[in-house]
Amino acid sequence: SAEVKFNRNSLLLTLKRYSSAVSDMEKTILLPSLLRDVPSGCEAADETCRDLYANYLMLKAIRNTVESSLVLLDDHKGKNTTFTKTLEPSVDADPEALFLFHLKGLFSVMSDLIKKTRGLTEKYLDIIGLAN
Asked: Which GO biological process entries does UniProt record here (predicted)?
């Protein structure tokens, strides 16, 4: 329906918003090497803490995966199973409820990635002295 087509929370629109945010990031960040060794804002003791350059590369890679849809279903089997088993509704649950659970999770992840992409772009502008 037309209402769903223009719904702000539609999956297609959310994926396009992420792709657009990454494209804007790439157009703005002309010298990604300036992001090397700039902390991403996480705790220094955190092992997963990356510099902004690593975040830049990760955000671009995720966009490429989203656009190409080359994620193999077997890639994620067996990874983080204890985490997903504690949060995911039971396999015997209503298929619609299971679908909605994963769709809400996808929207949450994509919204977070959009915020991170825009934040990285803003940080780069701050580094080069062009922050608003």
From this structure: regulation of lipid biosynthetic process
DSSP 10: -
Q: Which of 51, 54, 60 is nearest to 22 (CA)?
A: 60
DSSP single-letter state for residue 30: S
Placement of tokens 């329906």 in the chain? 1
pTM of the predicted model, to two decimals? 0.74
C-alpha distance from residue 87 to each of 61, 64, 71, 74 (Å): 27, 28, 22, 20
Residue 77 scores a pLDDT above 80 = no
Residue pair 19/66 in contact (Cβ under 8 Å)? The answer is: yes
